[in-house]
Design brief:
By secondary structure, the chain is of the alpha/beta class. The protein has 2 domains: 2-255 and 468-476, Rossmann fold; 279-460, 3-Layer(aba) Sandwich (Rossmann fold), CATH 3.40.50.2000. The chain is 35% helix and 21% strand. It has a 9-stranded mixed sheet, sandwiched between helices. Strands 14-13-12-15-16-17 form a 6-stranded parallel sheet, with helices on both faces. Helix 3 crosses helix 6 and helix 9 (279-292) crosses helix 12. Bound molecules: adenosine-5'-diphosphate (ADP).
């Protein structure tokens, strides 16, 4: 098959989180399976140009209809670690992708509506007719709408769309200006409930709802989250839309690229290792401590890597730092916050813990350091409030770093509690799962209480009663890698 991925990220050239990893890894895997895959991405000014090989002009003067006129785009082409990528570069005063950031602008909805339109226009004008266009998240939600309402009648009648939702929280909203800009027009038609009208705000058009409604198939990134999205508040108001589309909606578990994330060859870590010989992991731990100026000792090292965001359970991340330190472990955090309140909070913590030889908080995005942390830490915490899939626990497993996760979404599809999982034989259990979100509650649980009330999954209990990670690590590492 000929598949075109249209997305706002592709690692490592454009990566804000797991979306980038998955778009790259999935494309590579599809190619390995014999399909032809191309990617269409925005040409951001701040992307990692050093990860693009052979960048050249592929289509000059692509005129993309916009507000009844047109915006001139140059489309560039290059290889990102073997994947053929087309980058859409608009040449207008809007400077859609020259903002020094990927997301977070007040006109994000227009930036990505334009991107979706430009991607279709590029396919049309360059005579590319993929069998499947695979769209990702709200940024490309309008693409299937425009394909089936406009481009289908201009020579793209055979294209089919798969739409994958990586995070239901961010849905993309707009008003009638989006319809005017994209040429969809007809407000009365699109503001109908069974089309794009938001399920709760009658004055808003919902891009993600459009993606779900118009696509031929819709997936989300884990089976458990597919259930949550339909039957709990994790669908962020789209439960009914998913219900109406249930025959073409499914959860497909994300994966990681085992060649990108491989401690045997990882170029960002100083010592390579495999499940059969973990000496390199011990050396990486030492290297990590040296790099972050942490005390060298036999303490276990706990880490958190990820966005600092309500979704990720930041109050539990905060709690885990101090709990780890109080129990004699070291803690390393690598994360970035987009919300000023959360950012300030962790900046303050960083300052407060600055001279602590057992703790380091690194606030920002640092791909290279993340690899060293995965390789050097003993345990990784993922205490998310909700988690569509989560990649950090999978990367942790690949690096022999035991995941301690909250039992939600894809974390439940990938981590099986060492002590209490009833679905897997002991040798297939690979981490720790807890459910509570209240740190006070964790601290007060006794093991008797936890067993008798079936609230035994608190990882703090596991830490406290079962001994420290060195034991856990020895027992579980081999089977997790
Ligand atoms: P998200 O909800 O952000 O997509 P995932 O767990 O699915 O979370 O994926 C997170 C990806 O982003 C992982 O590859 C992780 O290593 C990476 N990552 C997250 N935060 C950072 C950071 N501050 N620096 C480097 N890499 C990060």
């Amino acid at each position: 098959m000929y598949i075109v991925q249209v997305a706002s990220e592709c690692a490592p050239v454009i990566k804000a989180g797991g979306l980038g990893d998955v778009v790259y890894g999935l494309s590579r895997e599809l190619e390995n399976q014999g399909h032809t895959v191309e990617l269409i991405l925005p040409m951001y000014d701040c992307m990692r140009y050093d990860h693009i090989w052979g960048l050249h002009e592929a289509y000059l003067d692509l005129m993309v209809p916009w507000y009844g006129a047109a915006i001139r785009c140059h489309v560039y082409c290059g290889w990102v670690h073997g994947r053929l990528c087309f980058f859409i570069g608009p040449q207008s005063d809007d400077r859609f992708f020259d903002r020094g950031c990927y997301y977070g602008c007040s006109d994000d909805n227009m930036r990505f509506a334009f991107f979706s339109k430009a991607a279709l226009e590029f396919l049309l004008r360059s005579n590319k007719r993929p069998d499947v266009i695979h769209c990702h998240d709200w940024q490309t939600g309008l693409l299937p709408v425009m394909l089936f309402e406009i481009y289908k009648y201009n020579g793209m009648e055979y294209q089919r769309v798969c739409y994958t939702v990586h995070n239901f929280k961010h849905q993309g909203m707009g008003g009638s200006e989006v319809l005017a800009a994209t040429g969809l027009n007809q407000a009365a038609y699109y503001f109908q409930y069974d089309r794009l009208r938001d399920n709760f705000n009658p004055f808003a058009l919902n891009y993600m709802k459009g993606g779900i409604t118009y696509s031929n198939f819709v997936t989300t990134v884990s089976p458990h989250h597919a259930w949550e999205a339909r039957f709990s508040e994790e669908g962020y108001g789209l439960g009914h839309t998913l219900h109406a589309s249930q025959a073409r909606f499914k959860g497909v578990l994300n994966g990681i690229d085992y060649d990108v994330w491989n401690p045997a060859v990882d170029r960002y870590i100083p010592h390579h290792y495999t499940a059969d010989n973990l000496n390199g992991k011990v050396k990486n731990k030492k290297a990590l401590r040296e790099r972050l100026l942490l005390r060298d000792s036999d303490q276990p090292l706990v880490c958190y890597i990820g966005r600092l965001d309500e979704q990720k359970g930041v109050h539990l991340v905060h709690h885990a730092i101090y709990y780890s330190l109080s129990k004699g472990a070291q803690f390393v955090l690598l994360g970035s916050a987009t919300e000023p309140g959360i950012n300030n909070h962790f900046q303050h913590e960083k300052q407060f813990l600055n001279n602590n030889p057992d703790c380091h908080l690194e606030l920002g995005f640092n791909e290279e350091l993340s690899h060293l942390i995965y390789a050097g830490a003993d345990m990784i915490i993922v205490p998310s409030n909700y988690e569509p899939c989560g990649l950090t626990q999978m990367i942790g497993l690949r690096y022999g770093t035991v995941p301690i996760v909250r039992g939600v979404g894809g974390l439940l599809d990938t981590v099986f509690d060492r002590d209490y999982d009833g679905t897997k034989p002991p040798e297939e259990r690979n981490g720790y799962v807890f459910y509570q979100t209240d740190p006070q509650r964790w601290s007060r649980l006794s093991i008797e209480e936890s067993v008798s009330t079936n609230m035994h999954r608190s990882y703090l209990n596991n830490w406290y009663f079962k001994g420290w990670a060195t034991t856990i690590l020895g027992a579980t590492q081999a089977k997790t890698m």
